[in-house]
Amino acid sequence: MMDASTITSSPFRSAERLAAIGVSEILKITALANDLKRQGQNVIVLGAGEPDFDTPQHVKDAAARALAAGVTKYTTLDGTPELKAAIATKFRRDNGLEYTTAEITVSAGAKQVLYNAMMASLGSGDEVIIPTPFWVSYSDIVAIAGGKPVLVPCSEANGFRLTAEDLERAITPRTRWVFLNSPSNPSGTAYTEAQYRPLLDVLLRHPHVWLAVDDIYEHIIYDDFCFVTPAAIEPGLKARTLTINGVSKAYAMTGWRIGYAAGPRPLIEAMAVVQSQSTSCPCSISQAAAVQALNGPQDIVQERRALFEARRDLVVAALNAINGISCRVPDGAFYTFASCGGLLGRTTPDGKLIGSDKDFAEYLLRAVGVAVVPGSAFGLAPYFRISYATSVSDLEDACRRIASACSVLS
């Protein structure tokens, strides 16, 4: 009999598909900042992409009623009939789009919706066009599904928007999807109907290319901006468009983990197969709460939108007052994406060179206890993202600290 004490184990070997994929830079920065806070340091975290507001009371009450009624069992695989009906009503009410419940899917967050779609549709080496700057998970989801992310830089001169010319150049016979996110994380850029139109005309000429539209910040828009979504603008693309949304941002329900999408039935059915072998149904209580969020009063969404707009104006003005920083006014979401290009080449008081946006972000955290996310994490440098989904007092303090840190660079 072999002596167990002499048996050695092989070291863990991760799957090849994970070789170039890591934990989100946003999560790493937020974890580091929170660790410093636990050590007693005075750190203001401006990295997290979630509202600081609580979930509306009528939504929490719906969850409590569901819990009391014993709604604690497995539900239909990709969404209860009640939630799918509420989502269909939302698309009709807000977007002028008609979908049957068979064309709707519900998952544990909009991220899982996108993951399911890529796993259900991508073959090895299939290409996905991603305008940059982009939400950090887009490219990794494509890669882990076996696809090839094709990153297309979008200049600040064009408001960080994708141009029709750049889209046309990026499309190849291997292109399977194009991602569009409006309003955008991280830039806050949104597309008007006129700005979408040239892009949609390009896609009409390439029938093998499908469109994934991330509308998660739909209700957080400013300055009388009129939100539109591509499937409503161009009916000719509806049969190859997946429109993704969720309750996380508009209703302050990030932890409830409910995302949804609508699209062609064959795609939705394929996505259900992926979900059936991963998470199965979303949380039953969260689904009941989401029904109330979508069907209930919407006033609180607009009230909070106005508060976000005031915070945006505060942060943009403060950043633009700092020598070396310039910040475009975002159209929506709750982020600023400011350039720190004017600070590159400068030196910190302890002699360290600010050679990149990552250096600048590390300097802010180390020197003045402000956690921001470097633009390089989103595929475009030299910028940094601030989430202004936090209190006005914290934002004012953070902006003062950033100004102070910049003033002593030489």
Report on this structure.
The chain is an alpha/beta fold. It has two domains: 17-46 and 300-407, Aspartate Aminotransferase, domain 1, CATH 3.90.1150; 73-295, Type I PLP-dependent aspartate aminotransferase-like (Major domain) (Aspartate Aminotransferase, domain 2). Helix content is 39%, strand content 14%. It contains 13 helices and 13 strands. It has a seven-stranded mixed β-sheet, sandwiched between helices. A four-stranded antiparallel β-sheet has the order 9-10-13-12. It has a two-stranded parallel sheet with strand order 1-11. A hairpin with a 7-residue loop joins strand 9 and strand 10 (335-339). The longest helix is centred in the last third of the chain and has 22 residues, at 299-320.
CATH class division of the largest domain: Alpha Beta
Q: What order do the strands of the largest sheet run in, or round the barrel if closed?
A: 2-8-7-6-5-3-4
**Count of discrete domains:** 2
CATH architecture of the largest domain: 3-Layer(aba) Sandwich
| Helix content percent band | 25-40%
- Rounded mean pLDDT is 95
Give start-end ranges of low-pLDDT stretches: none
Radius of gyration (CA) equals 22 Å
Structural class label: alpha/beta
- The CATH homologous superfamily name of the largest domain equals Type I PLP-dependent aspartate aminotransferase-like (Major domain)
Strand content: 5-15%
Helix-strand pattern, N to C?
HEHHEHEHEHEHEHEEHHHEEHEEEH
Termini gap: 71 Å
Brief synopsis:
By secondary structure, this protein is α/β, with parallel strands linked by helices. The protein is 39% helix and 14% strand.
